[in-house]
């Protein structure tokens, strides 16, 4: 007879005892259920939930969920490959108790990200959270590097009483305007309160450029926790908005034309507590390793877009002269280049200097996106790649001859082209491994097929409320 005292492999030592204690604590705080959360290849947050009393069982044995979700599309269709998409088999979802949070925005619920484990106790090769942890571990073991990361979260706020699936902005105030902040002040105040109660150190929340658009940023942490935070922030925004009768969208493009929602990633490499993006003899204080890391990102950006901009709607956002960063170029505080070198304010640079990667949106699975960004940077570091000259101003103003001479390329203008670039990038596919790389290609092709023949407005509408 098996009991909670002798769980199958997959959990961590002590988790059952911790979960048992947590169950009592959560119940005492009025928590009735726990959301077990992960993100699929299409970037959709998927969940299973358990009653609080079943948390110890979940920690011991996991919760069943089919591996077929690796090939779900955003519209819930399923694509198949020779490796993935079969209705056979099962995986177990094991909650990470270190990241369990009581949801202030959803009274009665707690939330925890999961690792996906096979029934034999092995790490599932399609688990994106496991992939990111592996990349971070390899960087520490082989290069003695650690990283800090943060994901900016942009979203649009719509009226909850708008008919059907239409988008009607919930505020009429101008971009970055005080009027917009006042109109939705109660909502954003409750959002700040919920984030604080959940231990999220919010740095900013403010109106953004597009109609009804806002942005929230939280502090940088280790990459796995940063990806977890990205998911938790969106769960919180959506829940708090719903309690105010509002509807939110994190989709890359809510309408066919105009500025979309980004999910820019801020990333910095550290060794022995020292920020490699500050205090060096390279440009703007970068060390030689930071320059090579940046050069690696530039080299792999075309293929990376299949991971960081994974939706057909992503390419409605990735347009020149909209601060989306659609050229393989870098610059200090240059918002039109794909890589923005952020030096930080004098006096804080040793802590604040980082890279902002701009061609990223919130249709991206954050674990895949951050993991692939680090892998690309490490490839540049291993080869001591040379960082080209800085670009100032808008790269769109360069003539074709000037852009070629300076090594500036336009990033893929469609998801189809991004997939071609990804398939040609052996380094990226090797970092992901065959199962995840196969899933990325299959799901991206499936998304393309699902919107074949649609115009820009129809593509935006197809994904408007999926993210």
Automatic annotation (TrEMBL):
Domain GS catalytic, first and last residues per copy = 128-467
Query: Which SUPFAM superfamilies does UniProt cross-reference here?
Result: Glutamine synthetase, N-terminal domain, Glutamine synthetase/guanido kinase
User: Superkingdom of the source?
Assistant: Bacteria
Q: Which UniProt key words apply to this protein?
A: ATP-binding, Ligase, Nucleotide-binding
Residue ranges occupied by any GS beta-grasp domain in the UniProt entry: 29-121
The UniProt entry, under InterPro entries, shows: Gln_synt_N, Gln_synt_N_sf, Gln_synth/guanido_kin_cat_dom, Gln_synth_cat_dom
Q: Pfam families from the xrefs?
A: Gln-synt_C
**Gene3D superfamilies in the record, alphabetically?**
Glutamine synthetase, N-terminal domain, Glutamine synthetase/guanido kinase, catalytic domain
What sections of the protein cross the membrane? Answer: none
Identify the stretch annotated as signal peptide in this record: none
Q: Which family does it belong to?
A: Belongs to the glutamine synthetase family.
What name is this protein filed under? Glutamine synthetase
Q: Tell me which species this is from.
A: Streptomyces djakartensis
The lineage, from the top, is: Bacteria, Bacillati, Actinomycetota, Actinomycetes, Kitasatosporales
């Amino acid at each position: 007879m098996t009991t909670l005292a002798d769980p199958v492999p997959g959990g961590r030592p002590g988790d059952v005892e911790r979960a048992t204690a947590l169950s009592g604590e959560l119940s005492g705080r009025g928590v009735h259920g726990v959301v077990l959360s992960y993100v699929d290849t299409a970037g959709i947050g998927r969940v299973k939930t358990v009653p609080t009393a079943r948390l110890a069982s979940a920690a011991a044995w996991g919760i069943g969920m089919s591996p077929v979700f690796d090939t779900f599309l955003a519209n819930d269709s399923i694509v198949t490959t020779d490796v993935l998409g079969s209705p056979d088999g099962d995986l177990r979802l094991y909650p990470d108790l270190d990241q369990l949070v009581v949801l202030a925005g959803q009274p009665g619920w707690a939330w925890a990200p999961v690792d996906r484990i096979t029934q034999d106790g092995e790490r599932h090769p399609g688990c994106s959270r496991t992939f990111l942890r592996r990349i971070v571990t390899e960087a520490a073991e082989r290069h003695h590097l650690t990283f800090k990361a943060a994901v900016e979260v942009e979203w649009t706020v719509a009226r909850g009483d708008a008919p059907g699936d239409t988008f009607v902005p919930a505020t009429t105030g101008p971009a970055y305007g005080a009027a917009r902040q006042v109109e939705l002040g109660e909502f954003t105040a409750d959002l700040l309160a919920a984030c604080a109660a959940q231990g999220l150190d919010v740095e900013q929340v403010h109106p953004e450029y597009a109609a009804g658009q806002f942005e929230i940023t939280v502090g940088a942490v280790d990459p796995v926790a940063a990806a977890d935070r990205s998911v938790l922030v969106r769960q919180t925004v959506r829940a708090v908005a719903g309690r105010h009768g509002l509807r939110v969208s994190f989709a890359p493009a809510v309408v066919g034309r105009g500025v979309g929602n980004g999910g820019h990633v801020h990333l910095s490499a550290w060794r022995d507590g020292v920020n490699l993006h500050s205090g060096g003899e390279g440009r703007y204080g970068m060390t030689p390793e930071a320059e090579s890391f940046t050069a690696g990102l530039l080299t792999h950006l075309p293929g990376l877009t299949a991971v960081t901009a994974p939706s057909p709607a992503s390419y409605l956002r990735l347009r020149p002269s909209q601060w989306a960063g659609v050229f393989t170029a870098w610059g200090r505080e240059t918002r039109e280049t794909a890589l923005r070198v952020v030096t930080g304010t004098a006096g804080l640079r040793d802590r604040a200097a980082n890279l902002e990667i701009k061609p990223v949106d919130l249709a991206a699975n954050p674990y895949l996106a951050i993991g692939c960004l680090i892998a690309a940077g490490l490839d540049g570091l291993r080869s001591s790649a040379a960082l080209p000259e800085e670009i100032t101003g808008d790269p769109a103003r360069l003539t074709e001859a000037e852009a070629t001479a300076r090594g500036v390329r336009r990033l893929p203008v469609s998801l189809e082209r991004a997939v071609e670039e990804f398939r040609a990038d052996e380094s990226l596919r090797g970092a992901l491994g065959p199962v995840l790389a196969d899933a990325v290609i299959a799901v991206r092709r499936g998304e393309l097929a699902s919107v074949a023949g649609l115009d820009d407005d129809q593509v935006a509408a197809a994904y408007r409320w999926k993210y």
